Amino acid sequence: MSQLRQLILDTETTGLDPKNGDRMIEFAALEMIDRELTGQSLHLYINPGCNISADATRIHGITNAHVKDKPLFGEVAKTIVEYITGAELIIHNAKFDLSFLDFQFNMEGLDLTNSYVASVIDTLMMARQKFPGSKNNLDALCDRFKVNRKDRGFHGALIDCRLLADVYLNLTREQISLIGFEQKNTHATEFKFEQLNLSGIDLAHVSVPEDDLNKHNQVLDRLNKESQGDCLWLKNQ
């Protein structure tokens, strides 16, 4: 069974919109294989070539002085591409981070992020589907899943990746446990399911109300979305 290489990814920026001149100042990606962090990561500080807004600094704590001697994005762009190539990215509010990566890749004459990676999972979208109407920012999800964030001062990319890894595992634990995949400190095992022999068994025929069938299908749709199309029930229909 091939191992799934996932990267928990986060960035910090000078502001909110690259089209308005904002740029990336921190990039972090933690490697996870078969739901276990490997200890491998890529963490970079980047000179944005522009001022960091005071509002942004209040969030992530990074000042112009911190990054004035760091490489420009063009000097690290290919390093980022090499690291993310072939992986599945796990990002909280992926639209934001990808907007910066794509904009700055394009400035360097490189392809957009999706052309390098296997897929992208947005944990914000997952959380909104799972907990509609609730706060689903990273802090709120850490509180919900009792993820320890006492050492988190500012919203730095690397520490946020570590928190998001725990949040992602909690968000997907129900789906993984349904297919018998969750294992601690072991490599994933390929499970084989045998067809039961039901001959000679008189099974009762039960009519299921249409409303119950609709609810059942809604649950399957949610599981299929969260597993990126890997819901075993639907696969075996």
Largest sheet: 5 strands, mixed
Strand order of the largest sheet: 3-2-1-4-5
CATH architecture label: 2-Layer Sandwich
Task: Give me the number of helical elements.
Answer: 9
The helix/strand order is: EEEHHHEHEHHHHH
Please, what is the CATH homologous superfamily?
Answer: Ribonuclease H-like superfamily/Ribonuclease H
Shape descriptor reads: elongated
- Please state the average pLDDT score: 85
Strand content: 15-25%
| CATH class label | Alpha Beta
Looking at CATH, which topology would you report?
Nucleotidyltransferase, domain 5
Helix content: 40-55%
Radius of gyration: 21 Å
Distance between the termini: 22 Å
Describe the structure.
With 237 residues, the protein is an alpha/beta fold. 40% of the residues lie in helices and 16% in strands. The chain is built from nine helices and five strands. A five-stranded mixed sheet has the order 3-2-1-4-5. A hairpin with a 2-residue loop joins strand 2 and strand 3. Helix 5 packs across helix 7. It is elongated and about 75 Å long. The chain starts with a strand and ends with a helix.
In short:
This protein is α/β, with parallel strands linked by helices and 237 residues long. It has a single domain (5-178), classed as Ribonuclease H-like superfamily/Ribonuclease H (Nucleotidyltransferase, domain 5, 2-Layer Sandwich), CATH 3.30.420. The protein is built from nine helices and five strands; from the N terminus they run βββαααβαβααααα.
